[in-house]
Write a structure and sequence with these properties.
Helix content of chain B: under 10%
Number of helices of chain B: 0
Structural class of chain B: mainly beta
Order of helices and strands of chain A: EEEEEEEEEEE
Radius of gyration of chain A: 13 Å
Number of strands of chain B: 12
Number of helices of chain A: 0
Number of strands of chain A: 11
Shape of chain A: globular
Order of helices and strands of chain B: EEEEEEEEEEEE
Largest sheet of chain A: 7 strands, mixed
Largest interface: A-B, 21 and 20 residues
Structural class of chain A: mainly beta
Radius of gyration of chain B: 14 Å
Shape of chain B: globular
Largest sheet of chain B: 6 strands, mixed
Oligomer: heterodimer
């Protein structure tokens, strides 16, 4: 149980395009989803917390207009990197949490490469 | 603000031996959760073990166990009978029980190498 699916696993696109990453909880309802960014050989950096039906809460220094997050249902959250540039290239990971006492369950991550 | 410190950037262990990864944290809260996650080369984060701060008994999951010292704010992970598949980055994480945000604070990670 507690499976989180993230899609796509790898995307390469040209500078200036927008990229959407999906995060789905497959066998539980995720009241809260999280989006992280991870640079090589570093820890996970929380970008934003997303609660179903409400606006995401962004961490300090994360551009809201650059990283659009939508959490329209209890099983789906999306991260859209708008007008992506090479510096946005990174590994993006989502996680989802069910009940109050439940841990976060992570997706497989998305490797984003902007040319 | 809470912080999590993993002071060992890299550790090595011989296959079948035991290794302990250290984690310390700082908090003024009395109720919280602590986790160990494993990130293999595939880069998926896998939950290894969790501990509720109000529980005195150390959590165990098969070959994985923790030594939770609340007063010392220490939460080490012991891996017994190490296997090649245990090679990965290990992250310690803290989560408040009362803040309502449910977000994790991660340590910087320890890379574990398992030698055949």
């Amino acid at each position: 149980g507690a499976v989180v699916s993230q899609h796509p696993s790898w995307v390469i696109c040209k500078s200036g395009t927008s990229v959407k990453i999906e995060c789905r909880s497959l066998d539980f309802q995720a009241t809260t989803m999280f989006w992280y960014r991870q640079f090589p050989k570093q820890s996970l950096m929380l970008m934003a917390t997303s609660n179903e039906g409400s606006k995401a809460t962004y961490e300090q220094g994360v551009e809201k207009d650059k990283f659009l997050i939508n959490h329209a249902s209890l099983t789906l959250s999306t991260l859209t990197v708008t007008s992506a540039h090479p510096e946005d290239s990174s590994f993006y990971i989502c996680s989802a949490r069910g009940g109050h006492h439940q841990p976060q369950h992570f997706g497989d991550g998305t490797r984003l490469s902007i040319l | 603000a809470q912080t999590v410190t993993q002071s060992q950037p890299e550790m090595s262990v011989q296959e079948a031996e035991t290794v302990t990864l250290s984690c310390t944290y700082d908090t003024s809260e009395s109720d919280y959760y602590l986790f160990w996650y494993k990130q293999p080369p595939s880069r998926q984060m896998i939950l290894v073990i969790r501990q509720e701060a109000y529980k005195q008994q150390n959590a165990t999951e098969n070959r994985f166990s923790v030594n939770f010292q609340k007063a010392a704010k220490s939460f080490s992970l012991k891996i017994s009978d190490s296997q090649l598949g245990d090679a990965a980055m290990y992250f310690c994480a803290y989560r408040s029980s009362t803040s309502g945000t449910y977000k994790y604070i991660f340590g910087t990670g320890t890379r574990l190498k398992v030698l055949a």
